[in-house]
User: Which sequence fits this backbone?
């Protein structure tokens, strides 16, 4: 029987293989097509979008803070500098467990509760991927500890930053002032433009010249595009727009004179202001006690701030522009000039002083500070030299308070001087209208007796008294007091606020009286001229702190130290060609001639012997050359 044999058909096999190959090739082509389409989509269609997302991960735009302008004294001594400080910062987005990271950092460097609390506050107002400072001013040892442990702390870095430094510490704290960290309150007052200007900057001027010249000193922010790795570390700078540095300031203040004034005042509470008679430039500006402004630069600790704010001596209070004190008898030269100009007194006017004064139809007795009086023939020269109250009471009784007010206003009393410092207070010189408005009462004759002696309602700042004295020394030319002498080498011109026209003979008489205060054997201010080979003109004053019962005696021993009278002294020198005017206030110092006059003497001894030339300092020359070239 025959068997069926199945033979393979080679044609069928080939066809089958070809079909399978075709399917495979089509499959591969389709897959390649999908792949190419996807590549096209990624590389061409959505290229810009994905590139931007990728660059956001590795390229950042960072603001570059400008360098703050420097502040120099008149001789080119640097008062406010910028120094490198190393800060510990954290980029929140790079940290997985913030609590654990903070704990680890706490083992490596000293952190107090205040550091962490302030850090958490700053976290709330940062921009994405912005480093937020945790600790400022790391020591070299702390930097080393962080660096060694860097691999355990992604997102943690040590950054260098320029911070303000005040080389002379407390000497210029109340004039130059200080910068501090930008606070929530500062931010709430920021305009959109301010937000842009302060991007990358952590500090702002808080008090003093740092505050009043903030916009000048700040500069203009710059930007840079930086490439970073996954840990947030900068790999390279791709593009940079440099910031513009802040403008430098040169002051009228003289470091040597400032030191002399501070030393002369010693540990007592008070203020000293010295003014260049010919420009209104402030040469010395001391308020005591003072404080170290460097404490505030990167944020003051709670303990340090409490020590300053709770102190009975209020070191943060700027006595020279904020302290309002009764000026006492320092007003007598000004009042004498007013009486001469009003025709109430003359060189020949003499009065009898039994040691007290009585107004007609008034039972009260006004007692002179010398109980037995100054004699039967007291003229203006003696009244100034010995500070005779009765002479001025007799004049005030015949003088309208509004006339007195006008004269005081010409010398800058009762209004702000316009100095280029913040937080100045205006003091007060009363008038009829003022009393009716503020107290709802008419003006009484007794009020005039108080006002002529700088008591009662009258208040003045030590700065106002210095301006008043400089205006007297200038024979009525009233300059606006200025701290800043030049901005970027451009000298700021002196500014005359007004001129008081008075008869030359009347000026001569007032000068003669003020000179007698210092040079007569019975003058109340003779300590202001001791041992000097030029002539000084001045006036002492004593200002009551607490009221003394009518007719009672002032008993220093019975009063607590802080209730004792303030000691005041105002003066200018040399008399024949005045160059410097000084006002000194010593809180609770009692005798103006005894306590405050020697302080003024030290300033005259330092300043007057210097050559009277307006030579440009090397600092100003360098600055002006830089400005010319620029």
Assistant:
């Amino acid at each position: 029987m025959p068997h069926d044999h199945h033979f393979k058909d080679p044609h069928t096999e080939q066809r089958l293989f070809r079909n399978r190959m075709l399917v495979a090739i089509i499959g591969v082509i389709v897959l390649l097509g999908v792949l190419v389409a996807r590549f096209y989509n990624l590389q061409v269609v959505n290229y810009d979008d994905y590139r931007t997302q990728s660059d956001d991960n590795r390229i950042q735009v960072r603001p570059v803070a400008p360098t703050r302008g420097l502040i120099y004294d008149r001789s080119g001594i640097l008062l406010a500098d910028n120094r490198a400080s190393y800060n510990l910062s954290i980029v929140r987005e790079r940290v997985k467990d913030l609590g654990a990271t903070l704990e680890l950092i706490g083992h490596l460097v000293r952190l107090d509760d205040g550091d962490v609390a302030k850090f958490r506050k700053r976290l709330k107002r940062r921009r994405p991927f912005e480093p937020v400072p945790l600790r400022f001013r790391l020591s070299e040892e702390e930097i080393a500890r962080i660096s060694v442990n860097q691999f355990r702390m992604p997102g943690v870095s040590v950054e260098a930053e320029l911070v303000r430094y005040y080389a002379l510490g407390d000497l210029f704290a109340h004039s130059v002032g200080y910068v501090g960290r930008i606070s929530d309150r500062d931010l709430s007052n920021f305009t959109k433009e301010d937000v842009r200007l302060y991007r990358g900057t952590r500090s702002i001027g808080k008090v003093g010249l740092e505050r009043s010249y903030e916009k000048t000193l700040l500069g203009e922010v710059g930007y840079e595009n930086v490439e970073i790795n996954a840990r947030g570390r900068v790999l390279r700078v791709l593009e940079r727009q440099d910031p513009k540095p802040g403008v430098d300031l040169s002051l009228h203040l003289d470091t040597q004179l400032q030191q002399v004034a501070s030393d002369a005042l010693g540990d007592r509470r008070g203020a000293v202001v010295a003014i260049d008679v010919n420009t209104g430039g402030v040469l010395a500006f001391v308020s005591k006690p003072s404080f170290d402004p460097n404490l505030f630069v990167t944020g003051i600790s709670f303990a340090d701030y409490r020590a300053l704010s709770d102190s009975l001596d209020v070191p943060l209070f700027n006595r020279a522009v904020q302290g309002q004190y009764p000026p006492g008898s320092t007003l007598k030269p000004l009042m004498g000039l007013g009486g001469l100009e009003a025709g109430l007194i003359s060189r020949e006017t003499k009065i009898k002083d039994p040691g007290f004064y009585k107004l007609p139809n008034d039972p009260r007795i006004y007692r002179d500070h010398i109980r037995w009086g100054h004699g039967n023939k007291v003229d203006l020269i003696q009244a100034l030299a010995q500070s005779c109250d009765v002479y001025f009471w007799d004049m005030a009784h015949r003088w309208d308070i509004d006339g007195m007010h006008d004269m005081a206003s010409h010398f800058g009393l009762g209004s702000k001087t316009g100095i280029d410092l913040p937080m100045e207070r205006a003091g007060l010189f009363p008038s009829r209208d003022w009393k009716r408005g503020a107290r709802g009462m008419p003006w009484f004759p007794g009020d005039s007796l108080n006002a002529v002696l700088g008591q009662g309602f009258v208040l003045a700042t030590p700065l106002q008294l210095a301006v008043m004295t400089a205006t007297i020394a200038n024979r009525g030319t009233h300059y606006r007091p200025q701290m800043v002498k030049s901005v970027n080498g451009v000298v700021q011109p002196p500014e005359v606020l007004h001129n008081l026209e008075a008869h030359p003979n009347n000026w001569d008489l007032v000068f003669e009286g003020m000179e007698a205060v210092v040079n007569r054997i019975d003058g109340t201010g003779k300590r202001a001229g001791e041992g000097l080979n030029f002539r000084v003109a001045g006036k002492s004053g004593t200002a009551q702190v607490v009221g003394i019962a009518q007719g009672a005696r002032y008993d220093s021993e019975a009063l607590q130290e802080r209730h004792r009278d303030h000691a005041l002294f105002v003066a200018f020198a040399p008399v024949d060609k005045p160059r410097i005017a000084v006002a000194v206030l010593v809180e609770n110092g009692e005798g103006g001639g005894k306590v405050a006059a020697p302080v003024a003497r030290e300033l005259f001894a330092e300043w007057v012997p210097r050559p009277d030339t307006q030579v440009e300092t090397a600092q100003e020359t360098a600055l002006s050359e830089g400005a010319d070239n620029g």
Summary: Residues 320 and 462 are 5 Å apart (CA to CA). Residues 546-554, 614-630 have pLDDT under 50 and may be disordered. The first strand starts at residue 59 and ends at 64. The two ends are 121 Å apart (CA to CA).
